[in-house]
Each structure stands twice: as C-alpha cells, then as structure tokens.
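Friendly challenge for the regulars: who can give me the structure tokens for this chain first? No prize, just bragging rights.
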Amino acid sequence: MTKELLAQFLPAYIVDFATKFSISEDFLRTHPDLVTLVLESKSIAEEKEKQSWFDLYPLMNDEQISKLRDILTKEKEKLAEIEAKYQEKQTEIKKKYDKIFSSPEYQQQQANIKAAEQTSKQQETVEADALLDQI
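First reply, four minutes later:
Bragging rights claimed.
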C-alpha cells in the first residue's frame, strides 16, 4: 500500500502510522472511516491486533463490519467523554489553586516569609562576621 493512496483516504495525521500495516485497497476505499477507527483504537493496542482486523476484513460480512464500526465509535466517544471530564476537573483544580495563590493573604504570607528569610540571612552574616573578628 503506497503512502499516496493512504493519504487519499485517511487523515494526514495517521498516514505514516498506517504505512506499517497491510490494508486491502478495497477496505481502504470502501471503509476509510473504519480503517481510521482501527488505527486510532486504544482497545486494539498492539500492531499485531490491528493487522489481524485488517486481515479479517475480507471474511467479514456487512453486519460484522457495522458492529465493529459501532464498537470502535462508542469506544472513541467514551474516551472523548472521559477526556472532557478530566479536562474539566483539571480546569476546576487550576482555578481553585490560582485563586488561593493569587489571594492578598497568600501574597502577604509569601512577602513575610521572604522578609524573615532576608532578616535571618543578615543576622547569620553579622554573626559570622563577629565570629571571624574574634579569631
């Protein structure tokens, strides 16, 4: 299968990956969406498994092809749903911490800590100089 033929039927981002597989031209021409779903599938993780599905295509009837498409489409939708929830939760947590870290109280605490550290460093320097003067 040539890269040019794959590029005619598949999204550009997946063409290079698709070159690793032996995909029948008929399958590619008649079901490019299903080829893409198989290539993107997380549940069909290993390359051997993906190739097995491409090899099984000539033996599958229309109903089996339809069921495979439905399963992989549902998988893709569920993963997108999970990713959306994850992004939502991540945004929520980020807002919470942004609010905490940008609050005037937090800023004041940080300023107090820096001032205390500076005072401590100055005191240590004075003490160190005093010790050196005693020697």
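The chain has a mean pLDDT of 92. The radius of gyration is 30 Å. Your move, everyone else.
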